[in-house]
Request: fold
Amino acid sequence: MNTSVNFAGVTLKNPVLTASGTFGSGMEYSEFVDLNKLGGVVTKGVAVTPWEGNPTPRVAETTGGMLNAIGLQNPGLDVFMSRDLPFLQKYDTKIVVNVCGHSEEEYTQAVARLADSCADLLEINISCPNVKEGGIAFGTNASKIEEITRAVKRVARQPIIMKLSPNVTDITEMALAAQNGGADAVSLINTITGMKIDINRRTFALANKTGGLSGPAIKPVAVRMVYQVAQKVQIPILGMGGIACAEDAIEFLMAGATAVSVGTANFGNPKVTEEIVAGIERYMQRNRVEDIRELIGCVK
Reply:
């Protein structure tokens, strides 16, 4: 029984990865999860310089999920490369570094510095606010996506995954722009913009007013978007959005994702990624699936 997949030229032992921002760099979770059993670990977003993130409160629970407005708080590349990457190198799992930035220059500087690192893949978070365009996210404009993808590819040595925002009219237009810019893969979906109001305090639950909605509530939207993109692009898809069990992960694979990332579920069950790997294997045995590639995109 083969569970390995080829993702943008990198062989993953299985299609289960963590989702950026929900797993740190694996240190906190390594007490609960055998990282060697995962296809890969996707790190929290890192920028060239440290980011403080947004004011608190910046996390709120919702029905079927959570809202977050962390603001991509991170220690910067110097700390990340001296502390986090050496930790992950100890494990037999692929390392996917999530990169964020406020400008094209910040993205390219970070990618260039990571070129000679042990990272296997780079996931580029284009939901960051473009400070030179009045704070509009890079990922909501197709021409900007193609432009930033080309810029990053010029300096990258690892395969590049462009992480797409679902807060757009047509997700396939954005995916095609990434592909046209030279992306090796796309990941989707990022969080959906939402809001919660504290009726007792008569104010916003998050200091930022709005935040990113994640968790089971967004899964049907995510599956739909993965399916739509899979019909349009020739590059692999890293699917995510509300995956909490093996059945959820298999849904994404059947919709056309080559691999999946598990995010919010980690907070409620630190062992969930390992359990999903085992659950996929049981499904394959039960249904006599010899190669997991039989499942990828099997629903047309």
Summary: The two ends are 24 Å apart (CA to CA).
